[in-house]
Write a structure and sequence with these properties.
This protein is α/β, with parallel strands linked by helices. It has one domain: Glucose-6-phosphate isomerase like protein, domain 1 (Rossmann fold), CATH 3.40.50.10490. Helices cover 52% and strands 14% of the residues. The chain contains seven helices and five strands, in the order H-H-E-H-E-H-H-E-H-E-E-H. A five-stranded parallel sheet has the order 2-1-3-4-5, with helices on both faces. Strand 1, helix 3 and strand 2 form a beta-alpha-beta unit. It is globular, with a radius of gyration of 16 Å.
Length: 183
């Protein structure tokens, strides 16, 4: 019977090889955005949508500190009516880009999550974000896919298993939120 020991061992090794310099860049970008009162937009599909929602929740709640402004954070995954309206009327690839165009302003931050780095709707939203003057961040796995070339800072999880990449993205968002509470 497999008790998961191999999986746990693989995840442990992978987490020790995370790109610390890139993670530090993400923390610095988010610190500057908070200080300037900028908005943070998060988006992804499937498990990455769940991570985007979780990250938004943790940025809004877990990083609150007396004397610091709160994060203004929006998970574009969390408004199913607008999501499905764009999917139905304009195509699934527009579900994040179109709301971003309505809500974002130059200087805001867009964080796209895609385990493969190939999700068309995430890529289109990152293109829109750059055109709007947002700082762009990507969380991905495998070799980074097309996403790595669409963002200013890309955190590539060194794994080829979707579950392990998603696990790492959760650990990353928790580590980033923790770092944002230590100044």
């Amino acid at each position: 019977m497999d008790t998961g020991e191999d999986y746990f061992g693989e995840v442990s090794v992978m987490l020790r090889t995370m790109p610390g310099d890139r993670i530090a860049q993400v923390v610095a970008i988010l610190r500057r955005a908070r200080a300037a009162g900028r908005r943070i937009f998060l988006f992804g599909n499937g498990g990455s949508a769940a991570t985007a929602s979780h990250f938004a929740c943790d940025l809004a709640k877990l990083t609150r500190r007396e004397g610091q402004p709160d994060f203004k954070v929006i998970a574009l995954t969390d408004n199913l009516p607008i999501f499905s309206a764009y999917a139905n009327d304009n195509g699934y690839e527009t579900v994040f880009a179109e709301p971003l165009k309505s809500l974002a302003e130059p200087g805001d931050v867009a964080i796209g999550l895609s385990t493969s780095g190939q999700s068309a709707n995430v890529l289109r939203a990152l293109e829109a974000a750059r055109a709007l003057g947002l700082t762009t961040i990507g969380f991905t796995g495998y070799d980074g896919g097309a996403l790595k070339d669409k963002v200013e800072v890309c955190v590539i999880v060194p794994a080829r298993h979707v579950g392990q990449i998603e696990d790492a993205h959760h650990v990353l968002q928790h580590a980033i939120c923790r770092a944002l509470t230590i100044e």
